[in-house]
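Throughout this review, each integer encodes one residue's backbone shape. One record appears below.

===
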Amino acid sequence: MHKIGITLIAFALILSSCNQKKAPQKDMTNPFFSEYKTPFQVPPFNEIKLVHYLPAIETGIADNLAEIKAITDNKEDATFDNTILAFDLSGDLLTRASLVFFNLNSANTSDEIQALAREITPKLSTHRDNIMLNKDLFKRVKAVYDKRNASNLNAGQLRLVEKYYTDFERSGANLPDEKQAELRKLNDELSMLELKFGENVLAESNKNFKMVIDQEADLKGLSGDVIAAAAEVAKNDSLAGKWVFTLQKPSMIPFLQYAENRTLREKLYKGYLTRGNNGNANDNKETIGKLVNLRDQRAKLLGYANHAAYVIDVNMAKTPENVENFLLKLWTPALERAKKERADMQAMIDQEGGKFKLEMWDWWYYAEKVRKIKYDLDEAQLKPYFKLENVVDGMMQVANKLYGIKFIQRTDLPVYNEEAMPYEVQEADGRHIGVFYMDFHPRAGKGNGAWCTSYRDQTYKNGQKIYPIVSIVCNFTRPAGNVPALLNFDEVTTLFHEAGHALHGLFTDGPYHRTAGNVPNDFVELPSQIMENWASEPEVLRMYAKHYQTGEVIPEALIAKIVKSSQFNQGFETVEYLAASILDMDWHTKAFGSNVEVFEKTSMDKIGLINEIAPRYRSTYFSHIFSGGYSAGYYVYIWAAVLDADAFDAFKQSGNIFNPEFAAKFRILLTKSGSDDGMVIYKNFRGQEPSIEPLLKRRGLK
């Protein structure tokens, strides 16, 4: 998941309304109220306390009042400088405090932080509406917009004016008063429902399920490191001598892949599959019904046919119909491939005398068996070569070979959790680029999955560049006993993926907050997904894949097997992803009745999803679309996959995966992203429209 800059939150917090109270007196012991005294002015996490957030956010709101009032009270005609630029530069305190707060609510939360989030969130929703529905402010923005072509603006200024005008229009600035009041109510309700959905998924994933095993025979098939990790979880849970498996993927996936006990595989998988759908306090079905109906009402209020039409209107795809046609074009070959994979696994079950039909919880287990037979390869052979520290080093070497940059670990920077590791990123000549935090392992207060975010975006202040502070947050296998953190290959590619987002944030360089690095949602995964390509290249594997005990570089025979098996299980992976993307589109284009399960089944039956595969995310835990900012936008990963496959193909076809000419051009793409439309930026790099052929070839769908 990509959260660089926390776009939806940060933009919502930029400004406040003109009827706020006088700014409260600042308590200067609050770290947010003065410039950070830390190296590179990173947040002083060691000094920030829970009591600091609300005063900082409320004071930030009040500070914004003065900034907005200065714009709207200006008696001079509205200009780029006194209106658009002033608006773009406002809200510094509010943004700084909010970024820290919401980042920690995702990565290092607690009951107290969650309670505070429920108090802060509606305030921020109201503030966003108060600004975007401020008639005096919109009048000035519109005045600049209307005369933009006669104002001698450069291309960057013109784009900024147009972006802000569009933002106001899409936020209801042109609606009559009674419709604006209705919009405010919808936005307030939606903000709280989205927060609630995320809290429920976190509780269902990290608190409400664990599978305790007390018979060693039930561990048959599992590797030593997986067993040791389960024993460590049990010990930490006051269950010493037993083994605990959770719904965190580093715990769940190895069990599904290797555990011979089919009954326990079913129990664990059903625990995962029913999150948010257990009829308890964390059940998400009612929340989903409210969310989709309120989103639909808001879209119609703003003049769109549905929520998907509203979201996609500013994306590269432009319309829901274009997205649906694109997804269905891939669906048919992917489903055919998945059915062949299913047949291979069923044949194996029959051959073994299993006398049962393949089920969802069997797929990982028998897929691994097929991989072993077809390619003489299983995950257990690879993991010893993917020690976390070595993979991190490999990612850094790739970035260095492409862009000449270097990463310097820092022990003098404050961290929000002892597991977060900060690095300074420098150009080859030592010039500072930014700060990069990495946080790798699951814990009770961390959300599921992996994402990239920022504590400070690149910007300019008084002509001086302010350098970014980015962070990637993951949930990778922990060390256990004497065994270090050994990653599976999916975790390896996830690390490269999130690092790609981080490089995007680190390289972005533009004069304005609103446009620097701010790209359409269906472009935003290009910088991350292209990095995944290098992870599996033989030349790169030789750089970082070293046995954790001997230091031996991964054997050529294993590399050959990795390359040969690159299209393994791609039917399954593509189908489960496309099914979730289509489900997302249906939620935001189709009318919802009253039953979440019936709606989901109807959606999946319509496309012929086979019973052995579930959508990658079932509705009740589909955080991307119901709490993570990807509503009507989960399709963006595969839309961007067309771009990344086409872009990497340029490197491959040149005969040098580190081709300096293409690397320099791609860095320009990252640096200048947001300065023009997504397709224009891409074509400036590639010199042509992207082709879908490299993606189909890579996935074996052609």
About this structure: Strands lie at 211-213, 243-245, 406-409, 421-426, 432-439, 451-456, 459-461, 464-466, 469-473. DSSP finds 28 helices and nine strands in the chain.
